């Protein structure tokens, strides 16, 4: 997507485009679930967010609305312990996110977010409840963010390297599911090496293709957000065109796609 959104989405996959501001998808999910409730379809909405977003006012408004109006929505919280850079001990005094279900009057479940089968089974049961009984459910997956939150985040400033290493090597979901498959003869070291080799080849090929692909035209930033471009943005677009013409040495447009 482009314009004011910076996340992916797609109608064919039933994925609502998420706005970048923290937590905005939560009330949107409650509202969409209420709309679906009027259609009598056997479907529900699932909304993913972190425990940091659960501290936003939008989360409270959404969950309260969904509970009062019996909206078929799953509020799936991935509690990774640190939000952007704040430990859970500095985020809330209560017992996590699932415990809030009591206050809202909605079912809630907490489970091991690093256990693939626990995640699947909890989500499956919650969906059944939401669809059949037309009510919201809170799911809290207890997990851990091994990497930095973003390229501007240095997580060593608020947690130890030893702590990260434990979650990266011992209690990591990838190692756990690998051990499960290996113990049952469904995976092996040779499979692992073959997968890594083929995947590396595919990634390097994708890198090469990306490096030779032309960059998006700067003027595309004005598309998709408005059906008819407002006068203020028309002026800004023309100002950008003039700026690009005045400073061609700083903007190699020959490396960008042409506008149709």
List the helices and strands and how they pair.
Elements (H helix, E strand, L loop, with lengths): L24 H13 L7 E6 L6 H12 L4 E7 L20 H5 L3 E5 L3 H18 L3 E6 L18 H9 L3 H11 L5 H24 L18 H16 L14
Parallel strand pairs: 1-2, 2-4, 3-4
* Range of helix content: 40-55%
Q: Number of DSSP strands?
A: 4
Number of helical stretches of at least 4 residues: 8
Strand content: 5-15%
Taking the alpha carbons of the first and last residues, their distance comes to 18 Å
Strand order of the largest sheet: 1-2-4-3
Can you tell me the residue ranges where pLDDT is under 50 for at least 5 consecutive residues?
1-5
The secondary-structure class comes to alpha/beta
Rg (CA only): 23 Å
Order of helices and strands: HEHEHEHEHHHH
- Rounded mean pLDDT is 92
Which characteristics define this entry?
260 residues; alpha/beta; single chain
What features would you describe in this structure?
By secondary structure, the protein is of the alpha/beta class. 42% of the residues lie in helices and 9% in strands. The protein has helices at 25-37, 57-68, 100-104, 116-133, 161-169, 173-183, 189-212, 231-246, and strands spanning 45-50, 73-79, 108-112, 137-142. A four-stranded parallel beta sheet has the order 1-2-4-3, sandwiched between helices. Helix 1 packs parallel to helix 2 (57-68). The chain is globular. The two termini are 18 Å apart.
In short, what is this structure?
With 260 residues, the protein is of the alpha/beta class. Helices cover 42% and strands 9% of the residues.
């Amino acid at each position: 997507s482009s314009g004011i959104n910076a996340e992916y989405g797609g109608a064919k996959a039933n994925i609502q485009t998420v706005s970048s501001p923290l937590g905005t998808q939560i009330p949107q999910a409650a509202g969409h679930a209420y709309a679906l409730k009027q259609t009598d379809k056997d479907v529900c909405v699932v909304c993913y967010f972190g425990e940091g977003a659960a501290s936003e006012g939008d989360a409270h408004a959404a969950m309260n609305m969904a509970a009062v109006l019996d909206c078929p929505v799953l509020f799936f919280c991935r509690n990774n312990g640190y939000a952007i850079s704040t430990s859970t001990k500095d985020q809330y005094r209560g017992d996590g996110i699932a415990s809030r279900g009591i206050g809202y009057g909605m079912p809630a479940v907490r489970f091991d977010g690093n256990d693939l089968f626990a995640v699947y089974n909890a989500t499956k049961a919650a969906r059944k409840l939401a669809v059949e009984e037309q009510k919201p459910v809170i799911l809290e997956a207890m997990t851990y963010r091994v990497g930095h939150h973003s390229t501007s985040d240095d997580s060593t400033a608020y947690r130890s390297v030893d702590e990260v290493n434990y979650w990266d090597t011992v209690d990591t979901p990838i190692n756990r599911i690998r051990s499960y498959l290996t113990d049952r003869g469904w995976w092996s070291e040779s499979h692992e090496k073959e997968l890594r080799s083929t995947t590396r080849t595919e990634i390097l090929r994708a890198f090469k293709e990306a490096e030779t692909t032309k960059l998006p035209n700067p003027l595309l930033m004005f598309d998709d957000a408005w059906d008819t471009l407002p006068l203020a943005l028309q002026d800004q677009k023309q100002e950008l065109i003039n700026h690009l013409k005045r400073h061609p040495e700083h903007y190699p447009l020959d490396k960008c796609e042409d506008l149709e």
